[in-house]
Amino acid sequence: DMAEPIQQLTRNNHPQERQSIPFTLIQRKEKLGDVLYEKRQYSKAKWACIRMAEKQYEQSICLGFMKLMRYICEQNSSGLYLGLTIPIVTIVHTNAAQSAMTPSVTVAYYLPEVLQDEPPHPLDPDIVIEEWPSTIVYSR
Q1: Contacts of 140 (CB under 8 A, 6+ apart)
Q2: From the centroid of its chain, how far is CA 33?
Q3: 84 lies in a domain?
Q4: Segment 11-62, tens digit of pLDDT
Q5: What is the CATH number of the domain that holds 120?
Q6: What is the pLDDT of residue 11?
Q7: Does 69 reside within a domain?
């Protein structure tokens, strides 16, 4: 669970609040009053993305997340802290038969509204800026 490290980072190093990405709630699954997950629709937007393929699925997520955090925290063409948006999205990839997960994942960061028109370029060549169409995300 990355929530606590992200909260700590923004609280300790950058007092700005985290920006929630605007979305339309499509479905919410609850059990005994606790939200298990939400199905959300996000509008067309630009995301900073990195695809990782380490031996372990968890390693891919962690390394991708850390590379994105460096981009967010000044390793970009503006040299500035970009601000943290939540959630950070992880896309799980499957094999050709779609019968099993692969260790390959894409970790994506929604660029804040003020940066959507002209996002800073990543210094890390593994990070790419992509414009996603309207997207469905499952969040927990």
Answers
A1: 35, 36, 37, 38
A2: 27
A3: yes
A4: 555 545 678 888 999 999 999 989 999 999 999 999 999 999 988 888 888 9
A5: 3.20.80.10
A6: 55
A7: yes
